[in-house]
TrEMBL record:
Chain coiled-coil ranges: none
GO cellular component: membrane
Any one Gene Ontology BP term: phospholipid biosynthetic process
GO molecular function: phosphotransferase activity, for other substituted phosphate groups
Entry similarity comment: Belongs to the CDP-alcohol phosphatidyltransferase class-I family.
Keyword Metal-binding assigned: no
Gene3D superfamilies for the chain: 1.20.120.1760
Keywords carried by this UniProt record: Membrane, Transferase, Transmembrane, Transmembrane helix
Segments traversing the membrane: 12-33, 98-118, 130-147
UniProt organism field: [Ruminococcus] lactaris ATCC 29176
Protein name (database record): CDP-alcohol phosphatidyltransferase
């Protein structure tokens, strides 16, 4: 029993994983707050900071792990799901119909990427490519941009970047012989 507690503390309850878990808790907290309010922006910003810090801390302390990478991906998916719940009604009013078709296409490509990875590697796989990170940053900034005059243009640019990122990841999973979790680009360096 003591050895199990020690394993949990040393391997699972590392500072970067705790940071990721705080993001999950913060994300769930966002469900309770009205969007585009000061409390929402404060908690939302906290979630964004923890998203940046977990990987930075893991690399700086040489405590990266498969569990941490999966937890981060799961945290990202939970965050996106909550953002869909909170912002879908707002975006429904703001975005034209054609933009929804573009978003749908991006989501289909992303789903194909996940299914391809599941079939080829027998696991959930979400790569942290440069384009995926750019997409994450753009999507994260969306609530701040929705109150700006250029909100529609910003959504268009975000959709293009997300489409490129989804296509790149899909092609990586489709063309790679094995799962490469550290892959940053479609081309190998």
């Amino acid at each position: 029993m003591e050895m199990r507690r020690r394993f949990m503390k040393e391997k699972l309850l590392t500072p970067p994983n705790i940071c990721t878990m705080l993001r999950i808790v913060g994300t769930v907290g966002l469900l309770l707050i009205r969007p585009l309010t000061l409390p929402f922006y404060l908690l939302y910003t906290f979630c964004g900071i923890t998203d940046v810090l977990d990987g930075t801390i893991a690399r700086a302390t040489n405590s990266t792990s498969e569990f941490g990478a999966r937890l981060d991906s799961i945290s990202d998916l939970i965050f996106y799901a909550v953002m869909i719940v909170k912002f879908f009604p707002i975006l429904l009013e703001v975005l034209p119909v054609w933009m929804w078709y573009c978003i749908g296409a991006v989501l289909v490509i992303r789903a194909c990427s996940y299914v391809t990875a599941a079939v080829r590697y027998h696991r959930f796989a979400s790569l942290h490519t440069i384009l995926n990170k750019a997409t994450g940053f753009c999507v994260f900034c969306l609530p701040y941009m929705l109150v700006q005059d250029f909100a529609l243009r910003y959504c268009e640019i975000t959709c293009v970047i997300a489409g490129l990122a989804s296509t790149e990841e899909f092609l990586i999973h489709l063309l790679s012989k094995e799962y490469e979790p550290g892959r940053k680009f479609i081309w190998k360096r």
